[in-house]
Amino acid sequence: MRTHYKKTLQISRLALACSAALLAMNQTAQASGFAVPELNITGLALSNAMVANPDSLSAIAYNPAAMAFHTGSAIELGLLLVEPDLSVDTGSGTVDSEANDVVAIPAFTAFTQLNETWSLGLSVNAPFGLETEWPAGTFDAQYPPGTTIPTQSKLEIVAFSPSVAYKINDKASLSGGVDYYWMREVIFNGDINAGMPGSNPAADLEGDGRGVGFNLGFMVDQGRWSFGGSYHSEANIPIEGTVDLPAGALPSFLTNKVNADLKLPWRLQVGVRNQTTDKLAIEFDVTRTGWSSFDTLVVDQDQLGTNIVTSLNQWDDANAYRIGISYDFSQATQLRIGYTFDETPQDDKFYSPRIPDADRQLFSLGVGHTLSNGWTIDAGYMYVKFDDRTLDIDPTFVHAAPDAGETNGTSAVNGDYESSVHLFGIGIKKHFM
């Protein structure tokens, strides 16, 4: 289905995926490993291996430089359903996260060719996000008295990415654009462990914010072989919010307004695609995410700048290895499959139940069918299986942390964690010549 459509960009703001740092007097919990790579329905079916694809309209969301290889204009709409399944066994039985409900996410992409050299596009998606919600009492027996036990952690970020592509010649293109991040909502809730069951007052933090980064891309089409790459810069999101602590936790002359900065990591994806036969194409991509920049999350009281929370992450940069295969079953119908091995950036030393991350494997499949008058429908499915992860850290482990209440990666988080996700998607594209 080597159709040179035009227009792609979307919103696969793929549900929620999580993030972290809590509140309460002297303790915090951090979350990470919250990238969401699924940007549209075709990408879902190909396990997000699309950065070097000059043929599919949907590749524009992964690499705006692909716009230069399409004519006219197009629009793409889609709907993604995400069903997570997360549980932990701390030795007292298995507990399921209360955020395991199905989430529906709309997707949008748009593109237009300005002239033979320049193209303009807009992508709206959710490259980061997550939600975990542990029932009260899940970790009561493990967290030290006076510290904050994680309950609900939620991070929703939508990215608006206008971009332009420049066609150098018939074989190569460059692109550049802006990534405007809107943090719709961030929630870090918890219970303060008073040392006795049933006596844990709630400690809640909510906020939102906005930040800006940039993106760059390139694509080279040599006929049977094509190459591509895209880069999204780091972005800092200042967060403004409120903290709701138990009575007496803050002096009466202080407000409950707080501020923080959340640094989003840079992302680099490069790939190579081979049109093996007239019907079969195979692409291999590598994605590297700069999680090492996501090292510390500090929450300060607004008036005096007094520190309320300091949460350490200390993550490592991590890779994902992707392969996507498409086969033109007929002139109108394309079959798709994909596979990814995705590394976690989070080691045991800074593990947190707010973002119980692990290495994962992604298995996907889907189909695209071209109708008359420029219409195409796409459908896809993905199963994400996280490696089971067992935390069995020595209770004598001590963090080299500035906060004595820091419990990320300590014996307080010990347990057997299991996670998986089902994703279903359907979309429609309209190409205007």
From TrEMBL:
One GO cellular component, as annotated: cell outer membrane
Pfam family, one: Toluene_X
Alphabetical keyword list: Cell outer membrane, Membrane, Signal, Transmembrane, Transmembrane beta strand
Keyword Phosphoprotein: no
Location within or outside the cell: Cell outer membrane
InterPro entries cross-referenced by the UniProt entry: OMPP1/FadL/TodX
Main location: membrane
Membrane topology: Multi-pass membrane protein
Signal peptide range: 1-31
Gene3D superfamilies: Outer membrane protein transport protein (OMPP1/FadL/TodX)
GO molecular-function terms, A-Z: long-chain fatty acid transporting porin activity
Name of the protein described by the UniProt record: 47 kDa outer membrane protein
Organism: Candidatus Thiodiazotropha endolucinida
Lineage: Bacteria, Pseudomonadati, Pseudomonadota, Gammaproteobacteria, Chromatiales
